[in-house]
């Protein structure tokens, strides 16, 4: 039973990471300039780190 729970957690985690990658790509295509504006403003620094970690 414990192994099944672990497997489900791994699948959920992988799906979550894949979804984040897709979201990051869509956002990157849709709003590269807005992302740069956020970074320049300093508010998006942590988000940028997350995107780098995903890649």
Description:
This protein is mainly α and 55 residues long. It is 89% helix and 0% strand. The protein has a domain at 31-55. The protein has helices at 2-30, 32-41, 45-54. The N and C termini lie far apart (33 Å).
Kindly summarize this structure in a few lines.
This protein has 55 residues and is mostly helical. It has a domain at 31-55.
Roughly how many Å is the radius of gyration? Answer: 15 Å
CA distance, first residue to last residue: 33 Å
Order of helical and strand elements: HHH
Question: How many DSSP helices?
Answer: 3
Secondary structure class reads mainly alpha
Q: Low-confidence parts lasting 5 or more residues at pLDDT below 50?
A: none
pLDDT averaged residue by residue: 73
Silhouette: elongated
Roughly what fraction of the amino acids lie in strands? Answer: under 5%
* Overall strand count: 0
Helix content: over 70%
Main beta-sheet annotation = none
Fold blueprint:
Elements: H1 2-30, H2 32-41, H3 45-54
Quick tags:
single chain; 55 residues; mainly alpha
